[in-house]
Specification:
Layout (H helix, E strand, L loop, with lengths): L2 H20 L7 H8 L3 H7 L3 H18 L11 H16 L3 H11 L5 H21 L6 H22 L8 H15 L31
Helix pairs in contact: 1-2, 4-5, 4-7, 5-9, 7-8, 8-9
Length: 217
């Protein structure tokens, strides 16, 4: 995709978010976005077929930010629940600048008449959870994978719902809830010692002492 095309797509999304912050997601209209950018509505349509596509692009941006976030050199040697906590926290941090608008986007999706938005939303949840697992190097398979995915999805949705209304500094209450839930679910048993494979099938943590948990606040 040409650089100018990618740039315009991001500018459309950024402008829509700014206009929604000034009013609300409900009041946002695509023709206002076009006017603010001095482009035609058809140029908006070429990137976003409907307003909800802007919301999807916003969550795509969070996925991308989480995947490229810088992490410490010892990240892979941390316990699984710590790695999962970090990647989910990175995802939430990407949405934090527009928390209220994010909440309004989801409220729009959940309206009774918006079934056409809710079905793709379910698929998005599954896709994002898969990226959490990849970023945290959670390599379980078979029945263990099914149980892990189910538990992680439940934790993610519960924490996300809490975070949307969390007025504590830097969302600390949501982070504490996240860390507690992950520790309870993935901090014991086989899941707690799962580490990505190193060279020649050895554990990435083989021969390396496990660092203490970082300050989660």
């Amino acid at each position: 995709m040409p650089q100018q095309t990618t740039g315009l797509r991001d500018r459309i999304l950024d402008t829509a978010l700014e206009l929604a912050e000034a009013s609300s997601w409900e009041r946002l209209r695509l023709h206002r976005v076009a006017e603010a950018l001095d482009i035609t509505l058809d140029e908006v349509r070429q990137h976003f077929r409907q307003k909800d596509d802007l919301a999807e692009a916003w969550f795509d941006r969070a996925d991308r930010s989480m995947l490229v976030a810088e992490r410490s050199a010892g990240f892979l040697y941390q316990p699984l629940h710590v790695r999962l906590g970090q990647v989910i926290a990175d995802w939430l941090a990407a949405l934090a600048p527009h928390r209220r608008v994010t909440r309004e986007m989801l409220a729009c999706k959940l309206e009774p008449g918006h079934i056409h938005l809710q079905v793709p939303g379910i698929l998005r949840v599954s896709r994002t959870v898969q990226w959490f697992r990849e970023a945290a190097c959670q390599d379980s398979t078979g029945l263990r994978r099914i149980l892990d995915e189910t538990a992680l999805t439940a934790i993610y949705l519960a924490v996300f719902a809490r975070w949307l209304f969390d007025d504590s500094a830097n969302g600390v209450r949501s982070r504490q809830h996240l860390d507690t839930a992950l520790r309870r679910c993935f901090g014991t048993g086989a899941a707690a010692v799962e580490t990505p494979p190193g060279p020649e099938g050895t554990s990435a943590g083989a021969g390396v002492s496990e660092p203490a948990d970082p300050d989660m606040a």
